[in-house]
Amino acid sequence: MKKIKTVFLKQFGKIRDLPSLPTIVTKVNEMLNDPNTTNESLSRVIEKDQAIVFKMLQLVNSVFFGLREKISTTNEAAIILGFDAIRNIVLSLSTLNLLDHLLKQKSNDHFKATSFWRHSIGVAVLSRYLAGEAMIGDPEKCFVCGLLHDMGKLLLAHYFPDDFIQVIEHARQEGLSYLDAEKTVLPACHPEIGYFIVKKWEMPTHLANTIFSHHNIQPGATCFNESIIVNTADGIINSYYADFLNNNTSPGNIKYGYFAPDARKLLNVWIETAPHWFPKVDILINDALAFFL
Ligand SMILES: [Fe+2]
Ligand SMILES: [Fe+2]
User: Fold this and answer.
1) What is the mean pLDDT of residues 114-119?
2) Whole-Å CA distances, 28 to 42, 76, 229
3) Mean pLDDT across 138-164
4) CA of 187 to the centre of ligand 2 (A)
5) Ligand 1: centre distance to CA 160 (Å)
6) So what's the pLDDT on residue 107?
7) Ligand 2 centre from 171 Cα, in Å?
8) What is the pTM of this model?
9) Mean of the per-residue pLDDT values of the chain
């Protein structure tokens, strides 16, 4: 019998070795909600974590940001890119590090780390691209939402491998998508698990809400724009790359079943024309993969 949803989600709250987010992320979040924060005070806090500074400067100077001038200090990065972009970079780099560390601790034959990161980074880069091109949502926010949208899957596979295997096996036996199998087997699905942990980590609300609604978008939701962008990027990436259940032998064959009705309505032109523009984004994704992993 399926467990009750609240009991199931509470298990995630009780995980003893659930890593905590580095204090720098909480501090940067707090500072960005404080109107007295200046470029200098923000830079001073970030500079306490030299590993993040190093990665951040590498990232902002990469082709990914396409800046003409080289940036050499955190202060310059904050002036040129703005507070929000800095927050999103710190958040992305720290969480990715933490989740990747988690993945490397225990191997699970059913959960393939490489395909998980290829999917997540693909959705992140594509979300950023679509938000910028379609002018829907903030590109940097969409990047983080895309990067972390499926973290519920990773947490389930790592902490509750038996439940994860049950989902995968059920999907294989019945020919279902991962999400549809989850709905049958588990009391709560990966968007709810991701939301629960992101809330626990006190990460920004728009991130939690977008993770929650990336497969089920409520009209008028505060994170509506980010959600349709991530949903569209997810559908396109699923049409090109392999995942746990799908070897994707015909990449580029758009799988319309993945898209939410609102994504089809508002971003259909992007979905329909993906075969023309996706190869360009694929190059960006491969650059980002080389950088992040
Ligand atoms: Fe998902
Ligand atoms: Fe996904």
Assistant:
1) 89
2) 7, 16, 25
3) 92
4) 19
5) 18
6) 64
7) 16
8) 0.90
9) 89
- Kindly write down the DSSP assignment for every residue of 63-121, as one continuous string: TTT--SS---SHHHHHHHH-HHHHHHHHHHHHHHHHHHHHHHHS-BTTB-HHHHHHHHH
Distance 153 CA to ligand 2 centre (A): 9
Q: Ligand 2 being an ion, which residues bring their Cβ within 5 A of it? A: 150, 234
pLDDT reported for residue 277? 96
Do 207 and 144 contact (CB within 8 A), yes or no? yes
Tell how far the Cα of 9 is from the centroid of ligand 2, in angstroms: 20
- For the chain, which domains are there? 5-292 (1.10.3210.10)
Query: How far does residue 71's CA lie from ligand 2's centre (Å)?
Result: 33
Residue 43: HSE in the Cβ half-sphere, 13 Å Cα cutoff: 15
> Any idea which ligand is nearest the CA of 239?
2
pLDDT 10s digits, 124-144: 999 999 999 999 999 989 999
Convert the pLDDT of each residue in 55-110 to its tens digit: 889 888 887 788 888 999 998 988 888 888 888 888 888 888 888 888 777 667 77
Please say if the pLDDT value at position 33 is more than 60. Answer: yes
Q: How far apart are CA 154 and CA 130, in angstroms?
A: 25
- Ligand 1 mean position to 213 CA, how many Å? 9
> Residue 108: beta bridge partners?
111
Of 80-89, 138-147, 169-178, 183-192, minimum mean pLDDT range: 80-89
**Cα 6–149–253 angle (5° rounding)?**
125
With a CB cutoff of 8 Å and minimum separation 6, the contacts of 247 are none
Buried b (16+ CB within 10 A) or exposed e, 98-129: bbeebbeeeeeeebbbeebbbbbbbbbbbbbb
Distance of CA 236 from the midpoint of ligand 2 (Å): 10
